[in-house]
Amino acid sequence: MEDIRLNVALLRRKVPNLTTAAKSIGIRPATVSNLCTGKIDLGKAEIRTLVGLASLANCKVDDLIIRGEKLDMIETKIKALDFFAPLVKEGTTGLVARPGMGQLVILAELLHRFKEGDYTTVFLLPKTRQDELETEGITELANYLTESTEETFSKLSEISGDILLITDNSYVVSGQLLDLQEKMIKEGIKNVTTILLDLSGEVVDEDIPFGPLETVWQLDADLAARHLYPAVQPIFSTSSLVEGVGVDQRHFNLRQRAQKLLRRYKELRSLVVVYGLDKIRSNELETYERGERLEAYFTQPFYVAESFTGQVGHEVSLSQTLQDVEYILDGKADEQSVDNLKYIGSLV
After folding, report:
1. Is the distance from CB of 334 to CB of 287 less than 8 angstroms?
2. What is the mean pLDDT of each successive set of 10 residues along the chain, which is 348 residues long?
3. Is 120 helix (H, G, I), strand (E, B) or coil?
4. Which family does the UniProt entry place this protein in (predicted)?
5. Residues spanned by the domain of 270
6. 218 in a domain, yes or no?
7. What is the reported pTM?
8. CATH (domain of 285)
């Protein structure tokens, strides 16, 4: 079957306020969001939905469909991100979190890792002074800092090679980011991967946080409260890569198995917290304990936090992560304690 996916970049440019626009013509925002990330197979989308989106974008239905184009992954070597919601090269990723859930630490770690790698990092500074103060200590990890979309475009034009652009939701709300992306396309600048954050935490309550995205990294309040970092929500964090095309079948299958286990584990945990382990049926105990081990495995020490935690940062390749997750899912780690799986790199 032909690989097809939604032209998220076009939709993002043409319909800035997609949530309101979609609702106005009877399309559920969740449907649009799932189509953007690939959670809903575009081939199974209702014709009326595609026609409605095309009318909003003032284009043909065919313009909204990309055929046969492979998405590429940027491997961060952060286990939870690469496994559950891989970063799409030249796509737009949104960090969805409330303050205090660790999004700034994730951002700092990414900047550190990319600065050491082959990517040039550009941080378009927040518009407000308060937000600038919150990102102090993080912005210094970027190769370049800019203060306006005009200055950012000028800098992007000068850089050869792959670029990681970081900015916050204020530029999405004002429409300036969309204008910048439109200008980049017109000028043939295609090597930019964008990551968006929201220091206010307001996007958590939106139907489509930041608008159409290729990747969503949603953080989990419960994981953060239990100090299990990075607190990546394994069910709602998603990417066009794992929901559509771009990852191999093994990754796809393991992710589905892991999500199924963690979903049931979370349900069981709500009983354990109130009533204790005794209330779990014996045939569910293995599911609970295995889910607890898998949850612990996805914690990871970061380089940027070494001076605070005393733990040495770790990188874990995706191939190793897949091997480790399979090992845990198959019960081969059942003899290991949960504590021994927390804040490690790989199982090897």
Report:
1. no
2. 74 83 89 83 85 91 81 94 95 94 95 89 85 80 95 96 94 91 90 94 89 93 96 94 74 95 95 87 92 98 94 96 98 96 94
3. strand
4. Belongs to the ATPase alpha/beta chains family.
5. 249-341
6. no
7. 0.88
8. 1.10.1140.10
